[in-house]
Amino acid sequence: FPWMVALGIGDSSDPSFICGGSLISNRHVITAAHCLPVDIVRVADLNLDNDQDGAHSFQDNVLSQTAHPQYNANTLENDVAIVKTTRTVTLTDLRYPISLPFKLENDCIEGENVLITGWGTTSYGGNSSPHLLYAVVPVVSLDDCKAAYAQYQQDIDNRNICAGYKQGGTDTCQGDSGGPLMAVRSNTPYVVGITSWGYECARPNYPGVYTRVKAFEDFIKKQLGMKRFSY
């Protein structure tokens, strides 16, 4: 996953990686607002603990970080942020941005299999994985997702995507926050969601809740300095 980013805090020589993100330009990473603040961006690594893993990673300090102005830390509404690197990320065949879904008619389809990745814990309250892991999960309808979380004071609407198996067992978990939920369209992967929250991890009947990237087109383009209608 050449666009996969680990976001860290602390000293650049020995950062603690706390979240994921996705490279969306040679200077910008999209992640979850609840991951901020962060200090370090590492792009395209495989094993965070091992420099001899064959990965061609690029690490840099954070220049600026901007959470969505309407981000709500209690409800995790509008849980999206853009992190800017200090230097330009040198792009290679093994390190490049993922496509944004703004031109897609169907950014996610109920029942469709989507891809999640991260270095997060492999069980609720467990240890994080130094290796980048990935999994496939199906998109769950917003109605089913709302019903699952009905007793919680959380707003789930078309700014979200939900994904997971009814029987549980496969999910994002702590430390995966901010990482991508990816859909493939005509052989091109798109970052359609951002790992945001859920009830524990991989619990039956509790899908993972993701920020829907397409719902935040204006905010993202503003941060990237893109004009609204020019591609």
UniProtKB/TrEMBL annotation:
It is an enzyme of class 3 (hydrolase). Keywords: Disulfide bond, Hydrolase, Protease, Secreted, Serine protease. Residues 1-225 form the Peptidase S1 domain. Pfam families: Trypsin (PF00089). Its EC number is 3.4.21.1. The keyword Nucleotide-binding does not apply. GO terms for biological process: protein processing. Signal peptide: none annotated. This is chymotrypsin.
